[in-house]
Amino acid sequence: MKPFLTFCALCCFIGIFRLPIEYYTFLRILISIGALLVLYNTLSSKQHYFSIIFLVIFILFNPVFPIYLYWKNIWIPIDIITGILFLLISFIERKEQKKEEEITEETSEPSIPIHQRTVSRDRIINPEKTKE
Hints:
Blueprint: H1 2-14, H2 21-44, H3 48-61, H4 72-107
């Protein structure tokens, strides 16, 4: 998912320039899909502050009921902030994955050679209960 979020951020930064209307339609579709993906991931991991931010991004960039701000000077900061947020969420996701990998490596049992392992059938079990 990181490459897709990075692509979304790159497209937002490209959207700063004066381009044909078809690109901005493509940008609306792309950013709304990316915002929905991030929204789903943040809601499932209970990160509500990012959920609210990407819900606003989805509403602003949705292609079904587009919001027209008409002035390019208003869209430029919105595109920059959206691109930075997509980069931020992709790097946060990568750091969380690394932490999860480190935790699983720490909790995994180190490999013990076969001759040093204690097999359950080799243990002596006293069937009599001790009297207290």
